[in-house]
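User: Here's a structure from my thesis project, written as structure tokens. My advisor, Dr. K., wants to see whether a designed sequence matches the one we expressed. Can you design one independently, without my sequence as a hint?
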């Protein structure tokens, strides 16, 4: 629906998305096809633009963590990987800052322990009476139908208290925890706890909602958002990986429980998303501008050929045929740069076009480009952007206005250096092709037709 006339998805994005998230979205706001497919390595990327420097805030626009996140949302449609990775880094830091007494409640999860638990026979599901089921009816802890049995009443049994839907006690580390520093609403907690309970139940695991382990409530939210089947930001995990992760989280909230999943997510970010992002940032113009630059390059080459042919057919001396080199040189260099996604005019000023979502960011009061909001909210909703107001605004812009979109200076020195290298390569290629072309025309005798 959006940008079908002016934007096309890079061929590598489809394959990367299929391997990362298992499914593709049909809409994209890409600004040109990346010329080469990611090979899964980061060779050729300078250290100044490494993955770690971008994540830790050591780069300038347009290569910051915010730009990386926007690329994953609007281009690769795989932002959940980076969102989960950033949450895990922060979670590991906060867990390490806990008092030793709290950390001891969540033991380290090791491979040996996982294998031992996997070989141990599973405990039978606990059956409850119909009276107990009636008490918990309508709450997050209501037992399934299969576990409800008719038992004889015990006259000496103390009747259970009616639950009020609130947790009676919380771990000290998560009493005041929330994504934005505010207390979580009880109905929101119930929703996440219910989804987390469903995820554990689907994996045939026993869930302990009253655990005193630190950050148990936060881990339940992460399960509901990233791990559970059908989660709004579901990671692309196999059934075996998801089952192993849930098995670990059912026993501990230690960061080591996420180790294998984080390794997979980090590998995808480092070896697929990051190289693709760096290649994409080389583009200094939007797609209409790049197509326009390619047209100018073809026009320059055609002009050089026509001038060389006309001078060759005339009675002018051979030296005048060298004038066609101007058209060849400008046309070939412009075409090579445009083929790599660069506009030679914008590069001369070290400028770039603002991305479509950046053009109207200042106009939106609820802009999602601030750290801790929108895409950087690890506990947020889905990463769908089809309803964002800038899409309709950008769609109304005519083609000429898109070609002449607002420009901004490229602040990252390493990116400017990469673009300078491409520009020099284009000039060198243009010089070689121009010399060969002019030499061929100079070899012909004069036509003397006019």
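Assistant: Designed independently from the structure alone:
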């Amino acid at each position: 629906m959006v940008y079908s006339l002016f934007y096309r998805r890079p061929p590598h994005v489809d394959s990367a998305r299929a391997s990362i998230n298992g499914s593709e979205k049909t809409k994209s706001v890409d600004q040109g096809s990346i010329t080469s497919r990611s090979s899964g390595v980061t060779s050729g990327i300078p250290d100044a633009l490494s993955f770690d420097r971008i994540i830790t805030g050591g780069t300038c626009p347009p290569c910051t963590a915010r730009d990386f996140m926007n690329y994953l949302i609007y281009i690769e449609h795989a932002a959940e990987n980076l969102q989960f990775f950033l949450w895990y880094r922060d979670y590991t830091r906060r867990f390490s800052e806990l008092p030793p007494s709290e950390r001891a409640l969540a033991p380290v999860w090791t491979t040996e322990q996982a294998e031992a638990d996997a070989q141990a026979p599973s405990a039978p599901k606990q059956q409850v009476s119909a009276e107990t089921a009636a008490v918990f009816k309508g709450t997050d802890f209501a037992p399934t139908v299969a576990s409800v049995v008719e038992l004889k009443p015990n006259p000496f049994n103390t009747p259970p208290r009616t639950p009020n839907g609130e947790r009676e006690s919380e771990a000290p580390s998560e009493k005041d925890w929330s994504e934005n520093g505010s207390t979580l609403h009880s109905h929101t907690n119930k929703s996440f706890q219910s989804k987390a309970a469903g995820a554990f139940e689907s994996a045939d695991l026993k869930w302990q909602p009253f655990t005193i382990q630190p950050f148990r409530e936060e881990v339940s939210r992460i399960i509901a958002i990233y791990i559970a089947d059908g989660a709004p930001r579901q990671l692309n995990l196999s059934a075996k990986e998801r089952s192993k992760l849930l098995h670990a989280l059912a026993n501990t909230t230690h960061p080591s429980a996420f180790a294998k999943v984080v390794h997979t997510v980090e590998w995808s970010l480092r070896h697929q998303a990051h190289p693709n992002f760096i290649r994409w940032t080389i583009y200094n113009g939007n797609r209409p501008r790049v197509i326009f630059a390619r047209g100018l390059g073809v026009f320059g080459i055609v002009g050089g050929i026509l001038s060389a042919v006309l001078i060759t057919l005339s009675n002018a001396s051979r030296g005048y045929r060298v004038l066609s080199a101007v058209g060849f040189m400008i046309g070939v260099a412009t075409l090579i740069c445009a083929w790599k996604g660069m506009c030679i005019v914008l590069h001369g000023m070290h400028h770039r076009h603002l991305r479509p979502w950046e053009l109207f960011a200042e106009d939106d009061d609820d802009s999602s480009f601030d750290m801790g909001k929108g895409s950087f909210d690890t506990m947020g909703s889905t990463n769908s952007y089809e309803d964002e107001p800038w899409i309709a605004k950008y769609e109304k812009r005519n083609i000429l206005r898109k070609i002449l979109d607002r420009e901004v200076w490229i602040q990252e020195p390493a990116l400017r250096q990469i673009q300078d290298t491409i520009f020099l390569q284009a000039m060198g290629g243009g010089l070689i092709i121009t010399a060969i072309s002019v030499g061929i025309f100079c070899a012909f005798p004069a036509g003397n037709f006019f």
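When you compare it with your expressed construct, this may help: The radius of gyration is 30 Å.
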